[in-house]
UniProtKB/TrEMBL annotation:
InterPro entries: Acyl_CoA_acyltransferase, GNAT_dom. This is N-acetyltransferase. Residues 1-143 form the N-acetyltransferase domain. It comes from the Bacteria. The lineage of its organism: Bacteria, Bacillati, Actinomycetota, Actinomycetes, Streptosporangiales. GO terms for molecular function: acyltransferase activity, transferring groups other than amino-acyl groups. It comes from Planobispora takensis. It holds the Pfam family Acetyltransf_1.
Length: 143
């Protein structure tokens, strides 16, 4: 995130039918500001073009195991979905997690008709059996 690309970041919109699956980028950036020690917000760019946003949370001393190292937010712009950017973003977050010594990455999703469950299952995430505030907790073990 830079001053120059902030405007483009705030224009990222998911598909209307996906509303409710993820917070808007402006909220995530406010949370990133409030959690500067642990949040890892990144724009996904293809050349100069902003195509999405991902935010990790790295808080290895959290008492809640699925908050220690995970995907907090992922928003791929509607017009750029289905082109591999989501997969790329998750892979890069996993690389960052590895650099920090993590052995697994977690994610939480709400059951939703147009939710990301199939996407995460395809990427290898598996439910842990935990449910947090109605959301399914899943993990990917890093090799
Ligand atoms: C979920 C989301 C991040 C996927 O991003 P994307 O860039 O469209 O996904 P990719 O193009 O990288 O897809 C990777 C694979 O997952 C599959 N996939 C993606 N979304 C899918 C869906 N809803 N159902 C089934 N498969 C899906 C793709 O077909 C692709 O499979 P392939 O490699 O066999 O072709 C995007 O749809 C999104 O931003 N959704 C709204 C917000 C959201 O749900 N965020 C997650 C909150 S935790």
């Amino acid at each position: 995130m830079t001053r120059d690309n902030l405007g483009a970041a705030l224009k990222i919109r998911i598909r209307p039918e996906q509303e409710g699956t993820v917070a808007p980028v402006e909220r995530s950036l406010a949370e990133a500001y409030a959690s500067r020690e642990t949040a890892w917000p990144r724009l996904i760019c293809d050349g100069e073009e902003v195509v999405g946003f991902i935010m990790g949370n790295f808080e290895f001393d959290s008492p809640i195991d699925f908050f220690q190292c995970g995907i907090w937010r992922l928003n791929i712009a509607a017009e750029h979905q289905g082109k591999g950017y989501g997969r790329f973003a998750v892979r890069e977050l996993c690389e960052e997690a590895r650099r920090r010594g993590a052995k697994r990455v977690t994610v939480l999703w709400e059951e939703h008709e147009h939710g990301p469950e199939e996407f995460y299952l395809k990427l290898g995430f598996r439910p842990t059996g935990q449910v947090f505030e109605g959301e399914i907790v899943a993990e990917l073990l890093l090799d």
